[in-house]
């Protein structure tokens, strides 16, 4: 009887130890698993950090290695300075035609520069502007004459293409250049400034009223240039 109890207790003890051992193994296994997972996670984070650092280093190196491109600074052309004669003409024209002297200066500078390059007296160009538009760069006639020198673009397709820019003739520099080229051409073909002016006006009147009017203004401009701009003609 006693031996039977001893055997029973021994079986219970053995069973308890077996369960304990099994549970212990599970706990140990869980601990080992958590430890390994933690190491893997730490390794991944470190790898990612190193990768990020490596990326930053690469980008930084690329930036340092790239050549430095200096910005291109466009320097505006210095406007042509008016000659002393045209400075005096400016004062005269501003008073005679009631136009701002400040607004006149670039127009007279363009006439001066274009006249010299084309081979037409700048004062003749200024006189034509006075008669044709009274220095209004936006003037337009019913016949389609445009700008300061009242050029009709369709008559001079070799000198200006307004199909690309219909407002081209309202640019003072363009208008003065084209007008001066037309005058130069007519002077060469007619052999006379007066006849060239009549052709510029589209008139065949032998009395040449247009030419006489332009030449009278040119004479006033010449006198103003010599007298300090004080002379004011009728």
TrEMBL record:
Coiled coil: none annotated. Residues 112-204 form the Transglycosylase SLT domain. InterPro entries: Lysozyme-like_dom_sf, Transglycosylase_SLT_dom_1. The chain crosses the membrane at residues 12-36. The keyword Membrane applies. It holds the Pfam family SLT. PANTHER family: MEMBRANE-BOUND LYTIC MUREIN TRANSGLYCOSYLASE C (PTHR37423:SF2), SOLUBLE LYTIC MUREIN TRANSGLYCOSYLASE-RELATED (PTHR37423). Belongs to the transglycosylase Slt family. This is Transglycosylase SLT domain-containing protein. It comes from Zoogloea ramigera. The lineage of its organism: Bacteria, Pseudomonadati, Pseudomonadota, Betaproteobacteria, Rhodocyclales.
């Amino acid at each position: 009887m006693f031996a039977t109890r001893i055997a029973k207790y021994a079986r219970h003890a053995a069973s308890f130890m077996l369960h304990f051992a099994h549970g212990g193994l599970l706990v140990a296994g869980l601990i080992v698993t958590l430890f390994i997972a933690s190491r893997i996670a730490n390794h991944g984070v470190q790898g990612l950090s190193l990768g990020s650092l490596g990326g930053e280093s690469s980008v930084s190196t690329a930036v340092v290695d790239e050549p430095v491109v200096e910005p291109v600074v466009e320097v505006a052309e210095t406007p042509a300075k008016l000659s002393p004669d045209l400075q005096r003409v400016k004062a005269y024209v501003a008073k005679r035609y009631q136009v701002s002297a400040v607004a006149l200066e670039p127009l007279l500078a363009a006439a001066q520069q274009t006249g010299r390059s084309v081979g037409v007296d700048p004062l003749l160009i200024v006189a034509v502007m006075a008669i044709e538009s009274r220095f209004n760069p936006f003037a337009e006639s019913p016949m389609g004459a445009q700008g300061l020198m009242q050029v009709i673009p369709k008559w001079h397709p070799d000198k200006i293409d307004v199909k690309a820019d219909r407002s081209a003739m309202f640019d003072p520099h363009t208008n003065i250049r084209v007008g001066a080229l037309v005058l130069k051409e007519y002077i060469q073909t007619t052999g006379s400034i007066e006849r060239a002016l009549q052709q510029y006006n589209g008139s065949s009147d032998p009395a040449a009223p247009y030419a006489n009017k332009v030449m009278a203004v040119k004479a006033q401009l010449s006198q103003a240039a010599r007298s300090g701009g004080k002379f004011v003609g009728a």
